[in-house]
Write a structure and sequence with these properties.
about 120 residues; 6 helices; about 70% helix
Length: about 120
């Protein structure tokens, strides 16, 4: 189940980066990363790279550490100033990503990962 959690959270995180840089899936932020006019674009680079690494289970611990820190930064910079309550400030996903990725830093990638196959 650890591998399933890692893969699913990695894929969902990756989708944020693909939206910003590849325009898929469509939405309010589709293609917004290319201008690098906002901090969200830089977060999009982290989402793309770490999302792919976490999904594959490659360099999982450092990728998860970077992703966790990015989401903590995103929460406090972009969401917390709007309202104290995460459900009202739109930051509940950022908090959840932060702690899931922090868990992966300590738990590792699980048995179904490139990290595990490289270690054998």
């Amino acid at each position: 189940m650890l591998s399933v959690l890692r893969i699913m959270s990695g894929l969902l995180f990756l989708a944020h980066g693909t939206q910003k840089f590849l325009g898929f899936p469509g939405g309010d932020y589709a293609g917004s990363g290319w201008s690098f006019a906002q901090l969200g674009a830089y977060a999009g680079v982290v989402e793309l790279v770490t999302g792919a690494l976490i999904t594959l289970g490659l360099f999982t611990r450092p990728a998860a550490f970077l992703a966790s820190g990015t989401m903590a930064f995103a929460y406090f910079l972009g969401h917390a100033s709007q309202s104290f309550w995460p459900v009202n400030n739109g930051g509940d996903a950022a908090i959840l990503y932060c702690f899931v990725f922090l868990y992966l830093v300590f738990a590792g990638p699980g048995p179904l990962s490139l990290d595990a196959s490289r270690g054998r």
